[in-house]
Design brief:
Blueprint lengths: L2 H17 L8 H7 L6 E5 L6 H12 L5 E4 L13 H12 L4 E5 L7 H9 L4 E6 L2 H11 L4 E5 L5 H7 L12 H17 L3 H6 L2 H20 L4 H13 L4 E2 L1 H8 L4 H13 L3 E6 L4 H6 L2 E5 L2 H7 L7 H16 L3 E5 L5 E8 L3 E7 L6 H18 L3 E6 L4 E5 L2 E7 H8 L2
Parallel strand pairs: 1-4, 1-5, 2-3, 3-4, 7-9, 11-12, 12-14
Antiparallel strand pairs: 6-8, 7-8, 9-10, 10-11, 13-14
């Protein structure tokens, strides 16, 4: 690339960065700042438009007021930027700002072999903060060149607590116990349940922004990057998944539905969608890895608002949206999330492993008002607790709270909005 163009881009982006809305402090900010003193590269990954650039800006404003080197590779003028151009970029930084020790590089996966430059400069004592929107590419490149010299942070769209901050709602110490404040919390929760937590969409309330994110993931992150020829099949697969969150599927069945000749093609497409952070695939829990591998998968989406804008009507699928919210909160804290099937084929929505032995079972349901629904959810949970030798289980609902005891076992029933706020503490 020509150095004068690089200089122009750097200056423009720095001006834009300084004028950029700082946004609400993200929960991940304290985690990233904790890593600032380490020599390791800090790698922040997450779906497009979830706030990675804003998070970097918050880090700069909080910790690096004397200046850093910053470049966002999403700029279309950098589409032909190659690994060989990094040296010219470094010279531009030196000319403009003098010697700095810290680089902030946004959406780095757009540059092939970026890790070669990062590793070389790390060897000279430079610190890096990096963002990317592709989990597989980042992990592959980090594994080959930066192994042991990086720490990873995943960023999700707003949590419910962050959503409340965005809405300028400050929860008081006893807010959940106060009738008026609890009513406001429930009102905000209903909005969060439907609209999700993508910052830009919440700011402008225009669904075309979410549809644009979806199209960018499909066409820029997957079709272009992996040279996909069967674009219609990829789009239909993505639409099917977003229309069936919380639903089990098999690769073989999807092959028939989409009319593709190879089950491996379906699996590859699903992997691409998952690596882009659009979707998450959840396996059935089993102590047998082989059984986990062959069993049906369940699918969840990175954001309720994105699923609602692209796929289906919220009102008909409220229970699945509740389940998706619970999954996302669990996934923020753990990657060991499964669903569970009992020996008599009853299903528990989530089994979460913590460490080697700790297991939590969670059912998610809109309400327990109907006796048939209550019996279905409770029976599945009790049977699973029996099989796994657990004393406690959890049922999360839209707005029910109670405690059940039977046969020495305890089932806690709790509203999801309350559970989300407790989980955020």
């Amino acid at each position: 690339m020509q150095k004068h163009l690089l200089k122009e881009i750097v200056l423009e982006q720095e001006k834009d960065r300084q004028e950029f809305d700082a946004g609400i402090p993200r929960a991940a900010l304290s985690v990233v700042l904790r890593y600032a003193s380490l020599p390791h590269a800090v790698v922040v990954s997450g779906v497009r438009r979830c706030g990675k650039s804003t998070l970097l800006n918050q880090v700069i404003n909080d910790h690096y007021k004397k200046g850093v080197y910053y470049l966002n590779f999403e700029d279309e003028r950098l589409v032909n930027f190659k690994v060989d151009d990094f040296n010219d970029l470094y010279e531009v930084f030196l000319e403009l700002y003098g010697e700095k020790k810290v680089f902030f590089l946004d959406e780095i996966q757009n540059v092939p072999q970026w890790e070669v430059f990062v590793r070389r400069m790390q060897g000279k004592g430079h610190k890096f903060f990096i963002t990317g929107s592709n989990a597989s590419l980042l992990s592959k490149e980090l594994g080959t060149k930066l192994s042991g010299r990086n720490v990873n942070v995943e960023l999700f769209p707003f949590s419910f607590k962050e959503f409340l901050s965005f809405m300028d709602f400050n929860l008081s110490k006893n807010g959940l116990s106060l009738t008026t404040e609890r009513a406001l919390i429930k009102k905000h929760f209903a909005e969060y349940l439907k609209h999700g937590g993508m910052p830009e969409y919440l700011k402008y309330q225009d669904q075309t922004l979410l549809k644009g994110v979806y199209d960018d993931i499909l066409y820029r992150d997957i079709v272009a990057r992996y040279d996909i020829k069967q674009v219609k099949a990829l789009r239909e697969l993505g639409l099917y998944f977003l229309s069936n969150i919380g639903t089990a599927f098999s690769y073989n069945n999807m092959k028939k539905v989409l009319g593709l000749g190879s089950m491996n093609t379906i699996k590859s497409y699903a992997d691409y969608l998952e690596n882009s952070y659009l979707l998450f695939l959840v396996s059935k829990f089993s102590y047998s890895l082989k059984e986990q591998f062959v069993a049906l998968k369940k699918v969840y989406c990175i954001d309720n608002g994105l699923a609602e804008s692209v796929a289906f009507q919220f009102s008909k699928n409220k229970g699945k949206f509740l389940e998706n919210l619970v999954f996302l909160e669990l996934r923020r804290k753990s990657s060991e999330i499964y669903y569970y099937k009992t020996s008599n084929n009853l299903e528990v929505d989530f089994l979460v492993k913590s460490g080697k032995k700790d297991i939590t079972l969670i059912q998610v349901v809109d309400h327990l008002d109907h006796e048939k629904t209550r019996q279905r959810e409770v029976n599945a949970l009790m049977k699973a607790m029996d099989e796994l030798k657990l004393k406690t289980g959890l049922i999360l609902t839209d707005d029910t709270e109670e405690k059940m005891t039977a046969d020495g076992k305890v089932i806690i029933v709790k509203p999801i909005y309350k559970w989300l706020l407790e989980a955020a503490v």
